[in-house]
Specification:
Elements lengths: L4 E6 L7 H9 L6 E6 L12 H14 L4 E8 L1 H16 L3 E9 L1 H9 L2 H7 L4 E4 L2 H9 L6 E3 L24 E5 L8 H14 L4 E5 L5 H10 L5 E5 L3 H10 L2 E4 L9 H8 L3 E4 L15 E3 L5 H12 L2 H18 L2 H16 L2
Parallel strand pairs: 1-2, 1-3, 3-4, 4-5, 5-6, 7-8, 7-10, 8-9, 10-11, 11-12
Length: 355
């Protein structure tokens, strides 16, 4: 039997980014024939320079090659929507079935689309299925007139992340360190994380904070820690592979007080898979599955005092910490592993192909 043949538009795998990371993680698990068409920014070229070449590239690929389905990965932002609207129309011209996956979401651009959404609606209603990462995004698309099926999906946790992980390391429930692992930017909540740790450190002198990541706010945060003489804050820079796993293992609470327009923060799913208590904000797709107290806490506030209070309560109850850790590990294994995500996507593709 011939394998289903799918073409997916993706950012360059050579660049850091959530979409590229997502499909790199899924790639070993496809049983269909998955092909990739690189679009978007390149190492020395911003995305706006590559728009026309990317549009022409898909046209000529489809002119000479036949695919059962096109997966168009996009974001609700001005440049991707212009480019990927053309990709939808080109795919339809070649009578190819289309699935669109909205990864990122710009609420300001959404407001603009709401004023003149007819072209957007007419183009994207040509797809057979649309994926989004949160019910909030789904509701917004429906309001803009999208009438094709819209399905919630998730980012993924690489199966290899937990291959050699033993959940028994979490059984004592004692919190020794906090972990912030994201871009070091203000909208990711690094300043809230450090100021929260600063107050907790007074009550729990042995507590540590690991900050893993790089970004525009890094120097300012290092300066703040130095000026305020906050002990045991460790700036580790960008970490990957075994080093990334090491910081997940040696920390018990994952802290991400983000105000960024998240789709589904992969780091939150990874922290759960590594049996950590998650403290974050109700942003993006996390709202659709997260259970307060069972998985950690979603905190609406951006006030340091609220994070200090909640984390203080967590630290005081090690038995509850161990319960959360085991629950998160089991839940992530069941729902977020790359092998399971790829399997579900393939099932949907096959259903569309058989229609």
């Amino acid at each position: 039997m011939r394998k289903m043949k799918v073409l997916s538009t993706v950012p360059s795998f050579k660049l850091l980014g959530g979409v590229a990371n997502h499909f790199q993680g899924l790639d070993p698990h496809w049983t269909i024939e998955m092909n990739y068409l690189t679009i978007g920014r390149r190492k020395y070229l911003p995305a706006y320079v590559t728009i026309i070449p990317d549009i022409l590239k898909l046209f000529f690929v489809l002119l000479f090659h036949k695919y059962d389905l096109i997966l168009i990965n996009t974001s609700l932002k001005r440049i991707p929507i212009f480019r990927d609207s053309m990709h939808v129309l080109i795919s339809k011209f070649f009578c190819t079935k289309i699935v669109v996956f909205f990864h990122g979401w710009d609420s300001d651009y959404e407001s603009q689309l709401n004023l003149s959404h007819k072209r957007f609606m007419n183009v994207f209603n040509k797809s057979s299925l649309i994926y989004v990462l949160s019910s909030e995004f789904k509701n917004s698309l429906v309001k803009m007139g999208i009438s094709v099926p819209i399905k919630l999906t998730t980012t993924k946790v690489s199966d290899s992340l937990i291959n050699n992980f033993d959940i028994s390391i979490r059984t004592d429930g004692h919190v020794k360190s906090l972990l912030f692992m994201a871009r070091v930017e203000k909208d990711k909540g690094v300043d809230i994380s450090i100021k929260t740790f600063q107050e907790l450190k007074v009550m729990y002198p042995d507590l540590k904070l690991y900050v893993c990541g790089t970004g525009n706010y890094l120097d300012e945060m290092k300066k703040y820690v130095e000026q305020n003489r906050i002990a045991d804050v460790f700036f580790m820079g960008f970490v990957k592979g075994d080093e990334r796993i090491k910081f997940f293992k040696q920390s018990q609470i994952f802290l991400l007080p983000t105000t960024h327009g998240e789709g589904m923060a992969t780091s939150v799913l990874e922290a759960m898979a590594m049996g950590m208590v998650v403290i974050t904000r109700p942003v993006g797709g996390v709202v659709d599955f997260f259970e307060n107290k069972k998985m950690g806490y979603l905190i609406e506030s951006t006030e340091t005092a609220d994070y200090v209070h909640i984390i203080g309560q967590v630290i005081k109850h090690p038995h509850h910490v161990s319960e959360i850790c085991v629950h998160n590990y089991k839940y992530a294994k069941e729902h977020f592993l790359a092998s399971k995500v790829a399997q579900q996507l393939e099932f949907d593709f096959q259903q569309i192909n058989n229609q």
